[in-house]
Amino acid sequence: MVHISSLLAAVGILQGALGAPQPDPNKAVQERQGYYFQNWSEGGSNIRCSNGQGGSFTANWNSRGGFVCGKGWSGGGARTIKYSGTYNATGPGYLAVYGWTRNPLIEYYILESYAELAPNEPWTSKGNFTIDEGTFEVFTSTRVNKPSIEGTRTFQQYWSVRSEKRVGGTVTLQKHFDEWAKRGMRLGRHDYVVMAVEGYTATGGSGSAGSASITLG
After folding, report:
1. HEC readout, the chain
2. What are the tens digits of pLDDT across the range 163-177?
3. d(Cα 87, Cα 187) in Å, to the nearest integer?
4. Which of 1, 57, 98, 99 has the smallest C-beta neighbourhood within 10 Å, fewest atoms?
5. Residue 191 half-sphere exposure, CB side, CA atoms within 13 Å?
6. Where are the transmembrane segments (predicted)?
7. Which of 42, 13, 38 is nearest to 27 (CA)?
8. Contact between 40 and 24 (Cβ < 8 Å)
9. How far is CA 146 from CA 43, 60, 80, 202, in A?
10. Terminal Cα-to-Cα distance of the chain (whole angstroms)
11. Considering the entire predicted model, what is its pTM?
C-alpha cells in the first residue's frame, strides 16, 4: 500500500510553497431546515454554491480563488454522517467532513475524496488505522496567526485521509476522534461540522475546477 505521507513527500510539498486560502468560519453560515449551510469564497470568480432542500447542496466552480461550500450541523460532535452524491474536480481541493472545536481550538478534516492533495502547511504523519469504513492516515499541522472561529489565532489542524477515495457512505466521527485521542490529539467543545467541498489555488497554480452534488442522509 502506498501511504499518503509517501505521496506527499514524492511531490515535494514544502513549508510555505503551497497556500490554500483559509475560510473564516463565521462568514456566510446560515441555518435552514435544521442544517447549517456554509458558503465562503475569496479571491476568485465563477464559484456557485447553492443551498438545496433538506440536506442537499451543490457546487460548481472554475476559479483561481478559494471556497468552502457545505452543509451540516451546529454543535458538531460525535455524529454519524451518511451522505451520497457526486464529486468531480481538478486542482487542489477536497470532499471532506469539516469541523471546529474550542478549548482547545482545533480545525479538523476527514477527507473522503480529493483532486490534488496540496496542504497549506507541512503535515506530520501520525500513522494509519483501519476501521470498517476504510483505511486512513492521520496527520497534524499548525496554522500560525490565521483566521479561525475565534478570530486570528494560532491553532492545530487534525486530518484523517482516506486511502481509497470514495463519494458516498457513512462517516462515524467518534471512530476518528478515538483514533486521534490514541495519538494525543485532543479535541475541545464542538462548535459545528459540515460535509464540505473545498477548492483553492496553490502558489503558481492555475486554480481548481469541478462540480459536486451532495445530500446528507
Report:
1. CCCHHHHHHHCCCCCCCCCCCCCCCCCCEEEECCEEEEEEEECCCCEEEEECCCCEEEEEEEECCEEEEEEEEECCCCCEEEEEEEEEEECEEEEEEEEEEECCCEEEEEEEEECECCCCCCCEEEEEEEECCEEEEEEEEEEEEECCECECEEEEEEEEEECCCCCCEEEEHHHHHHHHHHCCCCCCEEEEEEEEEEECCCCCCCCEEEEEEEEEC
2. 999 999 999 999 999
3. 29
4. 1
5. 19
6. none
7. 38
8. yes
9. 16, 26, 29, 17
10. 31
11. 0.86
Count Cβ neighbours within 10 Å for each residue of 15-36 and write b for 16 or more, e otherwise.
eeebbbbbbbbeeebeeeeebb
Write the pLDDT tens digit of every residue in 25-84.
444 455 556 899 999 888 777 899 999 999 999 999 998 888 999 999 998 889 999 999
* Burial classification of residue 145, based on how many CB atoms lie within 10 Å of its CB (0-12 exposed, 13-18 middle, 19 or more buried): exposed
Q: At 145, list the grid cell.
A: 496567526
The rounded distance, in Å, linking the Cα atoms of 12 and 95 is 23
| Higher-scoring residue by pLDDT: 31, 215 | 215
Cβ–Cβ < 8 Å for 99, 76: yes
* 21: pLDDT strictly greater than 80: no
Q: What is the pLDDT of residue 82?
A: 98
162 neighbors 135 (Cβ within 8 angstroms): yes
Which of 158, 195, 157 shows the shortest CA–CA distance to 178? 158
Nearest CA-CA partner of 174 in 81, 83, 112: 81
